[in-house]
């Protein structure tokens, strides 16, 4: 499989009824051998994020077969939970919460994750993107670091969740670097 054959399709809040089962199916396949109790709550997370009016999702397809997805939504202004990890917030603290990036096993290491990530953040009006990474997956954290994210702290959002690494980056790193801003 190659990324050249993966078609990226964009969806929003109103599309959730149409794409919900696709997201659940890709998740079930991606975690088939490694499902934890926390992962079993994924349908709740899909509904939670999808209920946000600013919900944005990109699904990659090879033909009509879904191979992966990325989704998130804008953070509520003034309630950006990453703030507790920085001494001084950037002047423009508008934030896109990058909630999920998932690629089915057969399409991993093909560049599909990078394409989904890039497509989801393309043309976002927010200045920053934030995400959580399970520290038990250092290769995933290293991948996000390659994409410009910096670990700013740790957060355990639920009692049964991992103590995630909080990672933050400018949505458009080139523009932020040119302006002298840092996250």
From TrEMBL:
<protein>
    <submittedName>
        <fullName>GNAT family N-acetyltransferase</fullName>
    </submittedName>
</protein>
<dbReference type="InterPro" id="IPR016181">
    <property type="entry name" value="Acyl_CoA_acyltransferase"/>
</dbReference>
<keyword id="KW-0808">Transferase</keyword>
<feature type="domain" description="N-acetyltransferase">
    <location>
        <begin position="6"/>
        <end position="172"/>
    </location>
</feature>
<dbReference type="GO" id="GO:0016747">
    <property type="term" value="F:acyltransferase activity, transferring groups other than amino-acyl groups"/>
</dbReference>
<keyword id="KW-0614">Plasmid</keyword>
<dbReference type="InterPro" id="IPR000182">
    <property type="entry name" value="GNAT_dom"/>
</dbReference>
<dbReference type="Pfam" id="PF00583">
    <property type="entry name" value="Acetyltransf_1"/>
</dbReference>
């Amino acid at each position: 499989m190659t990324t050249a054959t993966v078609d990226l399709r964009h969806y929003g809040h109103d599309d959730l009824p149409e794409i919900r089962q696709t997201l659940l199916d890709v998740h079930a396949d991606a975690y088939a051998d490694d499902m934890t109790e926390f992962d079993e709550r994924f349908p709740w997370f899909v509904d939670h994020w999808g209920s946000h009016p600013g919900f944005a999702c990109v699904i990659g397809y090879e033909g009509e077969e879904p191979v992966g997805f990325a989704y998130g939504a804008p953070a509520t202004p003034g309630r950006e939970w990453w703030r507790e990890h920085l001494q001084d917030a950037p002047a423009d603290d508008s934030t896109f919460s990058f909630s999920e990036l998932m690629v089915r096993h057969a399409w991993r290491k093909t560049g599909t994750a990078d394409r989904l990530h890039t497509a989801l953040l393309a043309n976002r009006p927010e200045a920053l993107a934030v995400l959580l990474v399970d520290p038990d997956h250092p290769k995933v954290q290293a991948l996000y670091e390659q994409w410009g994210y910096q670990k700013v702290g740790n957060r355990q959002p639920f009692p049964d969740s991992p103590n995630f690494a909080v990672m933050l980056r400018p949505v458009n790193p080139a523009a932020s670097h040119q302006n002298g801003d840092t996250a």
